Amino acid sequence: MTRKFALTRRSAIASALALSACGREAAGQTPDTTPLKSIASTPVGACVQHAFLQDPAFAELFARHYSQLTPEWEMKMEYILQDDGSFRFDRPDAIAEFARRNGIRLYGTTLVWYDQAMPAFLKLDGQGKRFADAYRNYILAVAGRYRGQAVGWDVVNEAVADNGVELRQSIWTRNLGVDEHMVLAFHHAKEADPNAVLFVNEYHLENNPTKRATFMRMVERLLEAGAPIGGIGTQSHLDLDFTRPGMARAAMRDLASFGLPIHVSELDISLGEKPDFSRLPDLLQRQADLTRELAEVYMALPREQRFAFTVWGLRDRDSWLRGQSGQRPTDQGLPLDDAGRPKPMFQALADVLSG
Predict the structure, then answer these.
(1) 44 within 8 A of 309, measured Cβ to Cβ
(2) 25 CB contacts (<8 Å, ≥6 apart)?
(3) Beta strands in 10-104 (DSSP E)
(4) Does a structural domain hold residue 147?
(5) For this structure, is 266 an active site residue?
(6) Domain range spanning residue 120?
(7) Which of 119, 123, 318, 328 has a CA 20 to 30 Å removed from the CA of 355?
(8) What percent of the chain shows pLDDT beyond 90?
(9) For the stretch 182-199, what's the b/e string if a residue is b when 16 or more beta carbons lie within 10 angstroms of its beta carbon?
(10) CATH value at residue 211
C-alpha cells in the first residue's frame, strides 16, 4: 500500500513538472517548472553571491525554487574582517535582507575556517588573551548581527586534513588549541545567538571513510568537552570520477548515529575531470542516481534530524566548479542548467524530497 502511494505521488509530480515545462516550451519560453520548495517536505536551499542577486532573473528563479539561502562567501571572514580589525557588513546585510523580503530562511557560513587567517588576526598571533578576545569578539559580532534571523551557522568548517587522519593546523590551533579552539567557537556562537542551530561542517565524508571516522571521533570529543554542537553538516561535493553507489548511504548512516540534525550543506556532483560529452545523457543519469541515493537516505532520517538539503549554486554557470581557475569550465554539477532549466538531477530531488 505504501509503495503504491509513493509511486502514484512520484508519477503525479513528474507529470506536473512535464506539463508545466511543455506548456512554456510550446509558447517559446523557458520551461517554468513546479517550484522545488512547493514539492519538498524539507527545507531546500542553495548558495548565492551578492552580485548574482542584482540580476532580477536570478533572484526570481532563486526565490521560486528555494526556501533557504546560504551566502556563498560574503558571510565569511575573508569579506567581513578588514585589515584594521573593523567589520564590513554591506553585502551580508543585503543578502540577509533579500532572504527576509522573500520569506527565505537564512543560513550562515562560516565563522571559523582554517583557510582564512586574515591580517587582523595575524597581527595578534602569539599574543594570548588579546588573540582570544578578538576571536570571541569576531564570532559575537557576526553571529550576533543576524540573531533571530539566521536559523543556523557553520561554526567550524573543514577541520579534518585531506589525508583523513589528522586535524588541520592553523592560526586558530596554534593560539587556542586543536580541539579547544572549536569548543570555544561553539560556546561563543551560542552566546551570540542561543536559538541558532550550530553545525560542524566537513567535505568528502561520503568518499573517504577514513576521513569520516576521524571526523566522527572529533565530534565525539567536542561533545564530551561540552561544545554545544547542534548539527552535522556534510558538504557532499561529489564527483562521478570517484563517488560510487552506496557511499552516500553509508556516510549518512554513520553521521546520523549522533542523533543530531543533518544538513546536506553544499551538494554538487561534478561530471569528472575529463567527461565524455558524447555520453552526456548517461553522465546526467549517473548524476541523478547519486542525487537520488543521497536524498533518499536523508529523507529516511527521523523528521527531527532533517535540517535542510542545500545545493551549492543555482545554475550550472553559477557553480564554483567552473570558477575562476577554469579547471572545469564546462562542468554541469547542479540541478538546473545554464538557462535555469531542470536536469535529471532536479527531477530526482523533486521525486524524493516530496517525502
Answers:
(1) yes
(2) 31
(3) 44-48, 68-71
(4) yes
(5) yes
(6) 41-353
(7) 318
(8) 89
(9) bbbbbbbbbebbeebbbb
(10) 3.20.20.80
Residue 200: closest CA among 148, 159, 259: 159
Q: What angle do CA 60, 65, 66 make, to 5 degrees?
A: 100
Give residue-wise pLDDT tens across range 276-288: 999 999 999 999 9
Whole-prediction pTM value?
Answer: 0.91
- Using DSSP's 3-state secondary structure scheme, residue 302 falls into coil
Is position 301 within any domain? yes
SS3 state at 120: helix
Mark residue 204 as left, alpha or beta (left: phi above 0; alpha: psi -120 to 50; beta: remaining).
left
Residue whose C-alpha is closest to residue 211's, from 265, 264, 263, 162: 162
pLDDT score for 324: 65
Exactly one of 72, 74, 158, 293 is catalytic; name it: 158
Active-site residue, from 74, 202, 266, 293:
266
**Position 36 in a domain:** no
Residue 273, domain member (yes or no): yes
Q: How many domains does the chain have?
A: 1
